[in-house]
């Protein structure tokens, strides 16, 4: 029986993720090491016998920021269609950009959708500065306690309620369009047939993906974060008992092996 999953992937390392500067709308590239690590993730986790089976992906959501889009490219999926941000309709050159495995094991018919719903938290006045600098700024302003994005949000940017609204909208879209039609249905075939195409890939950013996971598990953002994601990290969300009303965090996902 089918239990669809959502794979969440944080973009690779950037200079600001190394320095701890809050990076929302600022569009900065991956570091060379960030690119290298994402390629390694693609080799390890993407393929017919890996955690993320390309043929089973029904849809891919990606942030409008280039660092997230480049991370998706580096995972090495062999998509039927060009990425939306590519010019002239040229099909992606995965052998140059991706993980370098055979294209048959990475063939993917999922459509890529760029959505504002999964862009990074709008940091407003705190864009480009570190948490230590934020605390210093708040202390100088006479604010009574330390800053916590999950309860305070960002002045000039987004509140936890703003982020909750757009994350909830995306979760509802995933469940309605891709998971509800296939959850609990019999599997057919052994290599990712159409009836198994219920998995979804989301490539985005640290704070927004942590918020996404919290809301997936029906936790309020103001309750505080329980999840961490390293740059280039991968997480898995799914359901208990093949029941769409029982969303869960999949702590350990096994690789796929065809019988």
From TrEMBL:
<dbReference type="InterPro" id="IPR029033">
    <property type="entry name" value="His_PPase_superfam"/>
</dbReference>
<protein>
    <submittedName>
        <fullName>Phosphoglycerate mutase family protein</fullName>
    </submittedName>
</protein>
<dbReference type="GO" id="GO:0050278">
    <property type="term" value="F:sedoheptulose-bisphosphatase activity"/>
</dbReference>
<dbReference type="InterPro" id="IPR050275">
    <property type="entry name" value="PGM_Phosphatase"/>
</dbReference>
<feature type="region of interest" description="Disordered">
    <location>
        <begin position="88"/>
        <end position="108"/>
    </location>
</feature>
<dbReference type="Pfam" id="PF00300">
    <property type="entry name" value="His_Phos_1"/>
</dbReference>
<feature type="binding site">
    <location>
        <position position="67"/>
    </location>
    <ligand>
        <name>substrate</name>
    </ligand>
</feature>
<dbReference type="GO" id="GO:0046390">
    <property type="term" value="P:ribose phosphate biosynthetic process"/>
</dbReference>
<dbReference type="InterPro" id="IPR013078">
    <property type="entry name" value="His_Pase_superF_clade-1"/>
</dbReference>
<feature type="binding site">
    <location>
        <begin position="23"/>
        <end position="24"/>
    </location>
    <ligand>
        <name>substrate</name>
    </ligand>
</feature>
């Amino acid at each position: 029986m089918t239990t669809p999953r959502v794979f969440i992937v944080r973009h690779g390392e950037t200079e600001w993720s190394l320095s701890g500067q809050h990076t929302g709308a600022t569009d900065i590239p991956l570091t060379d090491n960030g690119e290298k690590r994402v390629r390694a993730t693609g080799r390890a986790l993407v393929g017919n016998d890996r955690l993320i089976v390309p043929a089973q992906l029904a849809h891919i959501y990606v942030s409008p920021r280039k660092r997230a889009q480049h991370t998706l490219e580096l995972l090495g999926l062999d998509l039927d269609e060009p990425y939306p941000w590519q010019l002239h309709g040229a099909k992606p050159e995965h052998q140059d950009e991706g993980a370098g495995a055979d294209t048959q094991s990475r063939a993917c018919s999922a459509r890529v959708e760029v959505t504002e719903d999964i862009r990074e938290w709008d940091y407003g006045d705190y864009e480009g500065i570190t948490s230590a600098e934020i605390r210093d700024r708040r202390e100088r302003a006479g604010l009574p306690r330390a800053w916590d994005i999950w309860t305070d949000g960002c002045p000039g940017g987004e509140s936890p309620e703003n982020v909750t609204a757009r994350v909830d909208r995306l979760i509802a879209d995933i469940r309605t369009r891709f998971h509800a039609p296939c959850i609990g249905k019999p599997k057919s075939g052994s290599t990712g047939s159409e009836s198994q195409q219920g998995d979804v890939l989301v490539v985005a950013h640290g704070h927004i993906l942590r918020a996404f996971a919290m809301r997936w598990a029906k936790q309020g953002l103001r309750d505080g974060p329980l999840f961490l994601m390293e740059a280039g990290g991968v997480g898995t969300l799914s359901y208990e008992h093949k029941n769409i009303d029982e969303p869960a965090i999949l702590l350990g996902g096994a690789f796929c092996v065809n019988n």
